[in-house]
Amino acid sequence: MAELAHRQQSTGPIVWVLSKGEDHEGGDVLGVFASKDVARGPFAEAARSIPFDLDSAWQDDDGAVHAHGGCDWVSLVPHSLITAPQLT
Question: How confident is the model at residue 8, as a pLDDT?
């Protein structure tokens, strides 16, 4: 229980990571945003840049959003900002 409390204290606010790539080829980080609202425009622009028709788009339980077309994808995913060393 103390370890969980330590981990929770060592993480800060949530940041939103926008990335895009190709299935089975990996991807690139396009930006890191302070909020999902701030990333909304860049996410939409990245999704529009997919050269194929979108075949799916969805939102995960944690609020992450994804768009997929052909073999290309764009994702906006929340991550905890780590503010302290993680090794004990």
Answer: 47
